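Practice problem 4.
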């Protein structure tokens, strides 16, 4: 490499330095492209957000700003933002490309559409560490679900899609906006305009994630959203599998508490008996590869659709999706 080429590699890139290869996601504000930097041949994901049509919509502009803010916070389990480039009426978020697709797509390829307890343990530990980092920076995720957990080439999961995230301005502020995916909404989020809510909604969603990993469907899944909300407000999830360990059942129970103050905290989570196969330090340092090998063929089939913000504040894709895992849910729920 000569001196001129080194200077090119060291400067901040422009959008003309990237070749768009294929669309790997579609959402409310635009598309996510798999792309390559023509200067060094490295692959990236580029999310193109059009602000022309939403610049007078305060809510959607806030979602765009929130996502960029979160992505700028570096952490091993949060998708990395390399550069943000503004051109005319568009923002180009240039991020690391997650070749393994989403945890949802990986789960749909597993036997019985679910993970083992040890596999679940690994993914929940990594997810929890990412959540801890968000909360330490006064950020409430508000849309934790398998679609928003992306997998890298070593099988690690990283949090993504922060368009619905909210930054706390003070320690005692309660949010009141109804946002998120119905099946993963906490009771206080469903009733947010009456009660308000805070970080504990992410703990409830984490409990839903544990349940879905171990069962193949979410704990409050129903054909109608109204029935989902009734089950959430009553705290009546589908029954747990009798094949699960006592520790797994206890973890779900500890997280899916109706009262926010009764839920286990992320700090307490680190000493829970369910987490016994790995140490938290080993997980944080990524000393192990993920428990499931991500094949090239599987990676190419996995669309990184969850890297995009939703079309609506309340995400409805779980109501309309017709993929194999959704059909499996309908058949398996007791």
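Answer key:
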């Amino acid at each position: 490499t000569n001196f001129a080429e080194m200077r090119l590699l060291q400067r901040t890139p422009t959008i003309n330095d990237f070749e768009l290869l294929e669309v790997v996601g579609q959402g409310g504000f635009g598309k996510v492209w798999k792309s390559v930097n023509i200067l060094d041949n490295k692959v990236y994901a580029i999310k193109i957000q059009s602000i022309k049509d939403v610049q007078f919509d305060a809510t959607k502009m806030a979602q765009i700003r929130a996502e960029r803010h979160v992505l700028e916070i570096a952490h091993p389990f949060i998708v990395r933002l390399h550069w943000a480039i503004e051109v005319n009426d568009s923002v180009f978020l240039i991020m690391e490309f997650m070749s393994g697709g989403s945890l949802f797509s990986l789960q749909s390829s597993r036997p019985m559409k679910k993970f083992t307890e040890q596999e679940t343990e690994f993914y929940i530990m990594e997810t929890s560490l990412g959540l801890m980092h968000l909360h330490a920076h006064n950020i409430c995720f508000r849309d934790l679900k398998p679609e928003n957990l992306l997998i890298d080439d070593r099988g690690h999961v990283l949090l993504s899609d922060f368009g619905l995230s909210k930054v706390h301005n003070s320690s005692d502020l309660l949010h009141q906006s109804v946002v998120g995916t119905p099946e993963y909404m906490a009771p206080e989020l469903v009733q947010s305009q009456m009660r308000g809510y805070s970080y504990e909604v992410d703990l409830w969603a984490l409990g839903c994630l544990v349940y879905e990993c171990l069962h193949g469907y979410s704990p409050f899944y129903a054909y109608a959203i109204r029935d989902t909300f009734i089950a959430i407000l009553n705290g009546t999830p589908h029954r747990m599998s009798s094949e699960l360990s006592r520790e797994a059942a206890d973890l779900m129970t500890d997280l899916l508490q109706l009262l926010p103050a009764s839920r286990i905290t992320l700090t307490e989570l680190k000493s829970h008996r369910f987490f016994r196969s790995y140490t938290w330090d080993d997980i944080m340092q990524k000393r192990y590869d993920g428990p499931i090998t991500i094949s090239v063929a599987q990676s190419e089939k996995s669309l990184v659709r969850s890297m995009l913000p939703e079309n609506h504040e309340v995400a409805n894709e779980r109501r309309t999706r017709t993929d194999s895992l959704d059909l499996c849910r309908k058949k398996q729920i007791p």
